[in-house]
Fold this sequence. Notes:
Layout: H1 2-14, H2 58-80, H3 82-124, H4 130-157, E1 183-188, E2 191-197, H5 210-233, H6 240-263, H7 271-274, H8 288-306, H9 328-345, H10 358-384, H11 390-405, H12 413-436, H13 445-463, H14 489-519, H15 526-531, H16 534-538
Helix pairs in contact: 2-3, 3-4, 3-5, 3-9, 4-5, 4-6, 5-6, 5-8, 6-14, 8-13, 8-14, 9-11, 10-11, 10-12, 11-12, 11-13, 12-13, 13-14
Amino acid sequence: MRVPLLAFALVCSLGVPRIFADDPKPDPAGTATGVAADVPGFVVTAPAELSADDKKDKDKVKAFDDAKKAFDDYTKQAAAEPLAVKLADNVGHNRVAINFMWTLVTGFLVMFMQAGFALVETGLCRAKNAGHTMAMNFMIYPLGMLGFYICGFAFMFGGMADPQSAVNGGISTMGNYAGLNSEFGIHIAGKFFGLFGTKGFFLSGAGYDTAAFALFLFQMVFMDTTATIPTGGAAERWKFSAFMIYGCFIGSVMYPFFGNWVWGNGWLANLGANFPGLGHGHVDFAGSSVVHMQGGVITLMFCWLIGPRHGKYNKEGKLVHPITPHSIPMVMLGTFILAFGWFGFNPGSTLAGTDLRIAVVAVNTMIAGATATMATTLYMWWFKTKKPDPSMMCNGMLAGLVAITAPCAFVSAGGAAIIGIIAGLLVVEAVFFFDKIRIDDSVGAISVHGVNGAWGCLSIGLFADGTYGDGWNGVAGTVKGLFYGGGMGQFWAELIGVTTCFVTLSVMAFIVYKIAEVIVGNRVSIEVEIEGLDVPEMGVPGYAGMVMDKQSETPMVK
């Protein structure tokens, strides 16, 4: 009884979401979303009254008088031309509608990336496990989505407009909806550190709003990208029942908390506002850490805990049986689909079709993917295997795309090219390193997503050129890295975020793995692994009527 009572006490201690007197009302019909205030520069608001001390400051008094005059002039003009205000409401509504459509369409593109992941991961595995690997990629979509719907979205975004926080805006590109305004956190030295949101469960209440729904769809498919990464790394020996348990946790608990800290008004986003000298806090434009590094760290823990595939290493830990992909064409087709979907992933993260920076984001994404592919191919060809290696070509492209995901909006084309080259080299060395220490990653997910997710975030602290991001995370000025005169502050903020991601997700992954171990066990039997997981686990072969490669393998001696 002790554990249930403690859980009940914890829920009671959190209480219900705070209700503010001026809580914005949800707009599930969308008719009231987008008004004249969404037209830049059209609406002038009344300035806040000065305090007694501020009235002694001539500069503040002058600024107040100027703002008051501007507001009075606007009020008079609006009264004289009411039709202009009504037209501005229509313009504002249309502007927000463009942002809605952009966000939704790019979300659809990201959803299609699931097909790319399924092809890449299945192609890199053996034919006798094709159906099992495909099934995990298929089922993670509904499992992750339902967890995100039930509570993950609320934990991640339920406090993004909390007035306690230094960064307390609403969904600015979508009518500035601020109903998701309840963040649970702690106060230290007068500063608020947000930990998780408490509004929007089951997309009800404050979550039943068109802006919240658009944000949910876009962010859900991002979460599902994280969720599907471990299905490749731990493939060919992971029980489907254990995978299902993991699937229940990823969208509901594992992904949302770090996501809240970076994108949902949590403490990492507020680092710069709370501690001047740490740049704009932990900045991650489209998810190098929030999406990819989280998936990579989970994969690292699962691969370490579940152990290598049977026969791959001898008792000294040396590679004795390289396990080759069963379908290189499938891998390369899946990579092309992923590269295409990335044009939703990165440019879509503006959440605004009216933000013309999307052109820079899209081109930077292309360039980093291309330079990474070239770097990986030539490095393998000239220095490693003396062959170009098609599977590593694909992992090189994905590594570059992962790395550019965080800095894509903040760097120049030249910066993107350099980031891609480094990513292409990192992925090769990382793959060989993890093999050397007996971490058997079936598809290279740790190297692609974990290592290069971290590199992508750190690169912001070096290559951000100061042409974008004014006011990001509530800090005045644009995002600027070390090489462009920004000092080390932004780099340290990125390093804090990357370290936090590694520690937090390592702990969560360990706990979830152990829960599955107790309930069903994580690893299939040695007989099933040799036979292939398709028939014993799924009941049908992935390829009917074909003779699978089930030759005897060198026994693995621990």
